[in-house]
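Quick one: co-fold with nicotinamide-adenine-dinucleotide.
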Amino acid sequence: MSIRYALIGCGRIAPNHLPSALGCGMEVVALCDINPQAIDVLLEGLNLSELHVKQYSDYQRMLDCETLDMVAIATDSGSHAGIVKECLSRGIAVLVEKPMALSLADADEMLALSEKHNVLFGVCQQNRFNDASLLVKKALDCGGFGKLSHVSVQVRWWRDADYYAQDSWRGTWEKDGGALMNQCIHGLDLMRWFGGSEITSVSATLANRYHPYLEVEDVGIGFVQFSHGAIGSFEGTTNLYKKNLEERITVIGENGTAVLGGECAQQIEVWEFSDPAIEAMRDEVGISIQSSVYGTSHGRVYADFKHALQRGSQPTVDGRCGRDALELVLAAYKSHVQKMPVSLPLHDFGTSSMQL
Ligand SMILES: NC(=O)c1ccc[n+]([C@@H]2O[C@H](COP(=O)([O-])OP(=O)(O)OC[C@H]3O[C@@H](n4cnc5c(N)ncnc54)[C@H](O)[C@@H]3O)[C@@H](O)[C@H]2O)c1
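Sure, here it is.
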């Protein structure tokens, strides 16, 4: 089955998308960016200038002119909702970059459209496909950890004024969000996935310490309560001095401990279990070398999406997983504003209600 594919948004994360689509045999029909130069830069950077592909600066025109099975959306976060809704309403499958939206109202509308039109809808939370993440999940699923005590996430990265000055959308409530929404959301996604039960409440405090020219938080710290009794903690920051330190995820159970570390939680740093069979699983994962904090798992996201299209069911990391991660960030934001814990499920919050 040929999959007719287009990419909307050809900026920094686009080099992780286009080769992934080509690599799993999709037919790349069109590329779209409001800035036509971005398409040239993308193709040149990938040595794909000869690729025969249509180019558009208006995504609606592209959708009118092309017959597409799937669209990937990698525009600024604030524009995801409108574009996703348009594509889903036209019956085109969508893979959108994280965060899927900046409000739960938008996320719920997207999910409803995907259901109404029976269209596949996935969110690019690629770290779920990292070998190290899959191994932790496997150990959890076969009971290797026993009763969980807690899960903790620390995303400690460095982003300076030059980073935020790259684009006007960065570091705004309307189009981005802060360290928790932009940088920490992958770690929060993994915490929720590993936690293995509903989260019932979230409390958090945010601050902007070193980026006074931004509206948003550059550090956010909080706690979650899982319904099975385990707890979780998270810290997301862009305040490290001069370089990224780590993305660390620790899972502590009565029969085992796992710590994922490295720049984007791709390395297994601790793997200790009472059951020798679980202990031995460690050898299934080699040393993972990452060239950037984006990791290398976009290709796996695409392979999974292609498989989902072929079998006609939702991808592994579907819109609901995207909403779960978004809900967690927005609950942390709401908790900061209200200065009290927030109960989940959360129905009604978005970054437009935010202030520090
Ligand atoms: N999964 C990850 O690890 C990861 C990593 C980086 C970025 N992201 C996400 O990807 C998205 C893009 O980030 P980026 O760093 O590539 O941003 P970017 O600003 O470098 O690129 C966005 C591109 O979208 C284009 N664009 C904006 N509105 C458009 C529209 N209506 N139609 C067509 N093109 C449009 C811009 O001109 C720009 O070229 C963000 O949501 C970000 O959070 C995800």
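If it helps, Residues 83 and 213 are 29 Å apart (CA to CA).
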